[in-house]
Write a structure and sequence with these properties.
This protein has about 525 residues and is of the alpha+beta class. About 25% of the residues lie in helices and about 25% in strands. It is built from eleven helices and 19 strands. The protein has a seven-stranded mixed beta sheet, sandwiched between helices. β7 and β8 form a beta hairpin. α2 packs antiparallel against α3. It is elongated, with a radius of gyration of 27 Å.
Length: about 525
Amino acid sequence: MRNHSLSFKLTAPCDMAALPLVLAYVREAAVLVGFAGDDISRIELAVEEAVSNVVQHAFLEDDEPGAFDIVCEQVTLGLRIIIREKGIPFDPGKAPVFEQGDDLEQVSARGMGMALMRQTMDEVAFHNLGPDGKETRLVKYLPGKSVHPGFEAQGQDVDPTETAFDPQPTDSAPAPKTSPPRIDYTVRRMTADEAIEVSRSAYKNHGYTFFNEVIYYPERMAEMNAADDMISAVAVTGANEFMGHAALVFEDAEARTAEYTFLFVNQAFRNQGCMERLTRFLLTTPKTRPLTGVYSYSVANHVFTQRGLIKLGYRDCGILLATSPATWKFKGIDEPGTQRISVVVSFVYLEQPSPRQVFAPPHHREMIGRILEHIGAPHVLASPPQNPPSLAAHASRINTKVYPLENCAMIKVHDYGSDCVREVRRILRELCLKQVAAIDLLLPLDDPTTCFVTTELEKLGFFFSGIQPEAGRGDALILQYLNNIPFDYDKVQVFSDLARDLLAYIRRHDPNENL
């Protein structure tokens, strides 16, 4: 008889009415592998419990994806069933474990669910899949470890290091829409076991659309905090309810600046001043490395974050257009969401830098000077030389980083060589062919060559965007390029006077607006 490899997938709606169909599908797969009698009943019981958990607890709101996948795969000597969904993140380490001999009548509903699955299946495991959600894995081995005559043993057994769990989240009800009364709460460093709450908060606020997938891997956030590559702050109530999170993230071990990011305040606790207290805590908490300043990217489809950061001392210094997909969700905030999302770059000094010369391209000198004054930089605008400096014969030192989740990229020129314009043109062409939507270009403002190279790069379609303070060896000029995407400046919302003037300035210099 011809050998077969069994692997089926069923997509089911998130509705208990679909359970009979799901169980029929699993039952037929079990029969094909060689199960019969009570073993099929045990498999059905485990699947019923797992599916019930998904339907009842995985999704919090009516507008969230209302479907999940069930995959049946033949593995060595048995059947593996994978229930995959994109519901709220869950930490398997917090699930209660039912021990043999425990009184079932005294076990919680969560513990009972785990007990039933473990009693009826040989393997129960959980995987976080980052932006792809999570999955429950159930494995049942054939009695006597025999294989049905119609199939050969295929695939691999489940990884024995996977963690058993009960997939019911700790809070199954959606967050209330109304603002709660004022409450007392504490802001402090995050502990490792709270990382899962940050992932859950990211999900509650943005689904699986957040630009940095690290937020959906609690174990990675815990590791980064342990290594001081991230400083996470959390707000918690007196009853230890998780309210919100914010973090400083360092680009590398040598970085003298950090990004203020991963700000999430759960809807039930908004209007409690969490953002302000989290931000102040991060700016003032002792750090293991010296920091000159902190920068932030605030979305420009609403002004709430921009306004809050200005109150805390941040100053706007740039606007990056169309950096994130329009599909990024902001739950609890009404915004159009009809075009790619732009961000306002802001910066706050933690220590005053030493004055230095800044070589601004002559046609942007006035705006750059205004931005430097606005952020409190003590630097001096130097006059460019009469003639372009002689470029070194060696190749330019240029780094390029692509952000796939956002479909944008950053090109950073560290040192000029004779091939600079040619090399940027080559990189730009490659990125455009890959259909990268938005491309930012950073040029060193402490090098007089920037005064002359900027004009040549603007001929390629780049245009002024602002400055990035303390970007490595000094401040950097930001140019940007939009790769054939529709964009409406009137849909960009900015708060500060400087940001409004800067947006108008960018629009005047955008070649796409002057075709």
